[in-house]
Amino acid sequence: MRFMAEEIKEEKKEKFVPFAKGEYFGHITECEDKIVEFENSGNKYKARLYTYVFQASEENKSKSFTYIDQLSGEKVMTSGEPYIGRTFRGKVWRFLEPSEGDDFVSNSEGNSGYLRFCESIGIECPVAKRVVDGNEIEVQLLPDLKLKDMEGKAGIAFVDQGRKWTDKEGKTRQYWDAKFIKKWEEGKNKTITKDSNEIPF
User: What is the pLDDT of residues 16-48, one digit of tens each?
Assistant: First the structure.
């Protein structure tokens, strides 16, 4: 009887559904930031790099996704229910402006993604007037984003495969990343508990 029970239990295991490219409803559950300096095309830049974990929510059960079967190579359609609770990692850059004596240069154009990210999670980006080359223009001010401003925020993450990389054992790896986040108009923010990174539903 014990053998039969184990067989039944084995048969009831849920089938693993591979990740699929697409848009997922969810929330930011974890985030970190650090200051990084790097060179590109002979220029030195300094930026604050925000990394976050995006968790797919229950609202995905009403969506449909298409993944590639690893054995047959064929496209398979599935509901979004298997993805509920799964997590993806994302990042956003905020390039810093140099002050007198700094050895890095400005890259204000590179902050367009940071601005869109802030707007997508509901962070206000006020407009102010500035004089540039003798002309008065309106510019959007970049908010000073804190980690607490990100935690629990609702959004729609566009998920796709990231860059391939090689681990210490020489194996090629490729993760599924949150490439960017769009505003979820009907989405409700969640409170992240202090004892764990899970969102209480």
Answer: 899 999 999 999 999 999 999 999 989 999 999
Q: How many Cβ atoms sit within 10 Å of the Cβ of residue 131?
A: 8
Separation between Cα atoms, residue 48 and residue 7, nearest integer Å:
52
Q: Are 55 and 26 in contact (CB under 8 A)?
A: yes
Pairing of strands 154-161, 22-40: antiparallel
Alpha-carbon gap, residue 177 to 111, rounded angstroms: 20
> pTM of the full predicted structure?
0.82
Asked if residue 80 lies in contact with residue 67, where contact means CB atoms within 8 angstroms, the answer is no
Which residues have CB under 8 Å from 99's CB, separation 6+?
Answer: none
Beta-carbon contacts of residue 180 (< 8 Å; ≥ 6 apart)? 90, 113, 116, 117, 120, 157, 158
In angstroms, rounded to a whole number, what is the distance separating the alpha carbons of residues 91 and 104? 22
